[in-house]
Write a structure and sequence with these properties.
Main location: nucleus
Oligomer: single chain
Order of helices and strands: HHHHHH
Structural class: mainly alpha
Strand content: under 5%
Subcellular location: Nucleus; Cytoplasm
GO molecular function, one term: mRNA binding
Keywords: Cytoplasm, mRNA processing, Nucleus, Repeat
Number of strands: 0
Shape: globular
Function: Component of the cleavage factor IA (CFIA) complex, which is involved in the endonucleolytic cleavage during polyadenylation-dependent pre-mRNA 3'-end formation.
């Protein structure tokens, strides 16, 4: 919330400074990266399954969603990748079902 406030009250440079301070914390949660997406895309976040799941459900671009899924899925162990496979299968089913009619 502080990062979003810094962006609204000051500018993007201030918001990035807040993000830089936050990401130095070893235990920074994925939600901090999620809040930073409008500010700057961060590759580290794509290793966090919760972040990727949220991002895949909010993106409205099939090509970018597919590219993200393919990039992330190859870098995760099978046990962590399962929720992504399930979400992607659901997405593909819905996409093809709505476009085949």
């Amino acid at each position: 919330m502080y990062m979003r406030f810094a962006r609204r009250a000051e500018d993007i440079k201030s918001a990035r400074a807040v993000f830089q301070r936050a990401r130095k914390d070893r235990w920074v949660p994925w939600e901090v990266y999620d809040a930073s997406v409008p500010i700057k895309p961060i590759k580290r976040t794509f290793r966090e399954v919760d972040f990727v799941l949220k991002y895949l459900t909010s993106i409205n671009d099939d090509n970018n969603a597919r590219a993200l899924f393919e990039r992330v899925i190859n870098n995760l162990p099978a046990d962590r990748a399962r929720p992504l496979w399930e979400r992607w299968a659901h997405y593909e089913y819905q996409y093809y079902r709505s476009h085949s009619s």
